[in-house]
Amino acid sequence: MALPGCFYFSFVVNALVVVALATSNVPHLTTNYYDDSCPNALITIKTVVQAAVQKEFRMGASLLRLHFLDCFHNGCDGSILLDSTSFIDSEKNAKAIQYARGFDIVDEIKEAVNEACGQSVVSCADILAVAARDSVVALGGPTWEVELGRRDSTTASPAASDANIASPFSNLSQLITNFKSHGLDEMDLVVLSGAHTIGYARCATFRDHVYNDSNIDPDFAQSELESICPIIGGDFNLAALDPTPANFDTSYFSNLVQNKGLLHSDQQLFSGASTDALVQQYSSDAVAFFEDFALSMIKMGSIQPLTGDQGEVRVNCTKVN
Ligand code: HEM
Ligand SMILES: *[C@@H]1O[C@H](CO)[C@@H](O)[C@H](O)[C@H]1NC(C)=O
Ligand SMILES: *[C@@H]1O[C@H](CO)[C@@H](O)[C@H](O)[C@H]1NC(C)=O
Ligand SMILES: *[C@@H]1O[C@H](CO)[C@@H](O)[C@H](O)[C@H]1NC(C)=O
């Protein structure tokens, strides 16, 4: 499905997601949060993201994934960005986060934004949310207005990361349960997995699927994947998560319909169960995919943020103030 990307740039999905906060005096996220304190914040982030993606398209995928990892670990609070110190046990050591990339670009963005604002007012958690949106747009996907006002955590906890971040070896019911534990439903699971329309995965994450699963196209497994991912060794070899890893498009879903998902967890979404119909729909309906993706990203970005006087705005994303 190759419609011109510019068609979708016109999509602006307004933030209609109402976040039900437990107490009404906790401040909500808002799209105009930095309008007074740093009017150039968003354009500054976009400029750095665009340059980084221009230089290496995979960086767009890596930045999108960082926001997901952050939100699924104790809420979108920038905790995954902290480096280890004698007080902090970095989440960068967690199994699920160990090989994530893009941390250097986040640091670059933070430096540029601090300078553009003349002070440190933009949180690292917000930078991740905006960089994720700008990355999707840079690779031809939909745009949306990012809700802002998250504050940064002063703690990290790698053990919790591994427990909270969905595994590529999970079956469908485990994936649904994992998303539910973060307040996301089955539809969010399917549409947000569509993020795998960009980027790559390491052999270690899909080897079992290639050699041990029956719901994988045998020709795809043998002629495309076995050489990249031998039974033994080559753990760090990369395969694209869909055939067009530089384009945010529907081919992730059309690929699943052909039993050509890369990860076991990807193919679980089209495996004869409750999510098949939605995968089938997105495989041929880019408008629905783009619209729903934008709404679910806003929902994911609203997972347990720190707001008001909770946490802090880190000066340097790698360490607490
Ligand atoms: C449904 C549960 C999910 C599982 C099990 C999962 C698992 C994975 C795994 C194993 C990789 C490869 C990592 C590596 O090789 O080190 C990956 C890559 C990626 N994931 Fe997911 N993921 C899930 C959901 C998401 C969501 C919700 C997003 C964003 C909204 C996302 C965005 C990405 C992106 C963009 C990449 C490519 C990163 C790159 O090339 O650097 N994933 N995912
Ligand atoms: C952030 O802190 C790290 C570790 O101390 C340092 O290497 C880096 O240069 C700092 N970044 C900025 C933008 O000051
Ligand atoms: C999914 O995996 C869990 C844990 O291994 C297992 O208990 C459950 O039966 C599996 N569900 C399905 C539908 O295969
Ligand atoms: C496949 O399954 C077998 C039997 O459960 C297991 O020993 C093996 O490690 C699995 N993975 C691969 C890549 O063969």
TrEMBL record:
GO molecular function: heme binding; lactoperoxidase activity; metal ion binding
Domain of life from the UniProt record: Eukaryota
Endpoints of the signal sequence: 1-22
Keywords: Calcium, Disulfide bond, Glycoprotein, Heme, Hydrogen peroxide, Iron, Metal-binding, Oxidoreductase, Peroxidase, Secreted, Signal
Positions marked as site (Transition state stabilizer): R65
Cellular component, GO, one term: extracellular region
Cofactors: heme b; Ca(2+)
Cofactor note: Binds 1 heme b (iron(II)-protoporphyrin IX) group per subunit. Binds 2 calcium ions per subunit.
Keyword Calcium among UniProt keywords: yes
CDD domains attached to this UniProt entry: secretory_peroxidase (cd00693)
EC number per UniProt: 1.11.1.7
Residue positions binding heme b: H196
Disulfide bond entries: C38-C117, C71-C76, C124-C317, C203-C229
Positions bound to Ca(2+) 2: T197, D242, D249
Binding locations of Ca(2+) 1: D70, G75, D77, S79, E91
Domain Plant heme peroxidase family profile positions: 28-321
Pfam families in UniProt: peroxidase
Family per record: Belongs to the peroxidase family. Classical plant (class III) peroxidase subfamily.
Function recorded in the entry: Removal of H(2)O(2), oxidation of toxic reductants, biosynthesis and degradation of lignin, suberization, auxin catabolism, response to environmental stresses such as wounding, pathogen attack and oxidative stress. These functions might be dependent on each isozyme/isoform in each plant tissue.
Name the record gives this protein: Peroxidase
